[in-house]
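task queued by scheduler; priority normal; single chain, no ligands, no partner chains; default sampling; output format set to structure tokens
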Amino acid sequence: MGCGELKIRSYDVQVHRAGVEDLERRCEVGPTERVLCIDTMGDPICRIRNSPMCKMLVAELGSELVGVIQGSIKLATVHKPPKNIAKLGYVLGLRIAPLHRRKGIGSRLVLELEKWFIANDVDYAYMATEKDNEASVNLFINKLGYANFRTPAILVNPVDHRALRLSSKTEVAKLKVEEAEFLYRKFMTSTEFFPDDIGNILRNKLSLGTWVAYPRGESWDDFGSDGKVLPRSWAMLSVWNSGELFKLRLGKAPLSCFLYTKSSILIDKIFPCFKLPAIPDFLSPFGFYFMYGVHHEGSLSGKLVQHLCQFVHNMATKSKDCKVIVTEVGGKDILRLHIPYWKSLSCPEDLWCIKTLKNEENAIHQLPKAPPTTTSLFVDPREV
């Protein structure tokens, strides 16, 4: 294949949709160790649809669609001197047809997407991949100049269709959007990758709401008012209904997942009086809730985070489609100790890589090498 034969152009839903869907079916989505895979349900751009700016590129060889890539742009906190806010370009959804790999198509697609980033004054491009995805790591780090940046953990917990018993020692209250935005900007603006347009996220139709938990007996009025005394311990989080955009499905999951699923369904039908925890039916595509903006303060806040996770679980039991709850936290964030998850469904070390796209400031090049200024990480639900 000569490079001149390859054409890269913007995605056109009328022209390319069927080809992209066919490519997705032919591609192995993630390495063999990946348990949960994405099912776009016929909407190739579902993962970037809610981003402030987005673009999808396709690569064509003759009449055959052989590759795709997606990107989005936003403003977020990255501790770039002299200001904390930078414009970030997120790279995702790179797919190359199996018979056309190792021909430079992936590199061409990434570089074309970076041109779009640069044209829109983006400071950094970043991407996320599984740590064990050798092909992706080799492409971005060894060939395209990206650097290892962070290794967050993706935590996945199944939803039992029975509600959990919540502690009577904890109060839970739902915040108004204005109250939630006030608290996020007050306590999380220094968190890495905190989105500058947090208000737009909270107001999105996919955001189900923001809740706070605090010890029963303590008061919390005027949540969004400055100068108010907060409880000594409290926690908050928001919930995004990702299942409205796309579904998850089991990839090459451990045999135990399938055995647990089938046996749990059978036991629950035969012996309903036992009221055993039931494993969800993972045998068909399913929806999920994504918990984001998890924050806690005070000595009792770990238990309050656990309580909020149980509260979200009980919300999910009312949805027929939601089978798991997902969140992503910093690799060394203490939150990992308080958020319930299934090890066999989770990814303990996701890999974030970053690349500088500007050359005018020497200091800007230090970001990929800089240690995190905080253990916490804000994962934008629009980029899940």
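post-processing summary
- The CA atoms of residues 118 and 357 lie 7 Å apart.
- The chain has two domains: 3-151+350-383, 156-337.
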